[in-house]
Each structure stands twice: as C-alpha cells, then as structure tokens.
Recover the amino acids of this structure.
C-alpha cells in the first residue's frame, strides 16, 4: 500500500465515520485501495447504505475507480 493509497483509504473512512445516518455495519466495511482503485467489501444493512458508501468512495477516488462488492445482510 503506497502513501497515496493510504491517504485515499483514510479520506473515505473519515467521510463514512462522519455520517451518523449509516448503520454500524456500514461503518465497519473494508476499504481496499490499490494503485488508486478502491474496492468496498462487507455487509451493510440497506440498499441506501450501499449507495451512500459508494458515493462517498467515488467522491474521494473518482468515478470509475470504485468497485462496490458490498452485500446487503439479511435482518436477524
């Protein structure tokens, strides 16, 4: 992980943590940045969480640089 990737990941994480409307699941997703390409992984509660997280990542990394592999976890 190079310094630019680390910065990108940090900025996305900060943006996510500042959004209190997101579920705990959303706050705990994995953000993997490699050569400027971001992959989001993990379970989220709703389609809204999934969309919001992707938008935050795109705002930092740029359109076309985000792969959304988030899954909606079934309610228990």
């Amino acid at each position: 992980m190079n310094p630019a990737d680390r910065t990108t990941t940090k900025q996305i994480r900060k943006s996510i943590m500042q959004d209190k409307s997101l579920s705990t699941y959303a706050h705990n997703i994995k953000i993997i940045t490699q050569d400027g390409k971001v992959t989001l992984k993990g379970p989220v509660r709703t389609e809204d969480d999934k969309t919001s997280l992707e938008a935050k990542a795109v705002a930092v990394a740029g359109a076309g640089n985000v792969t959304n592999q988030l899954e909606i976890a079934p309610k228990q």
The first helix runs from residue 3 to 18. The two ends are 36 Å apart (CA to CA). The beta strands are 30-34, 37-44, 66-72. The CA atoms of residues 41 and 70 lie 5 Å apart.
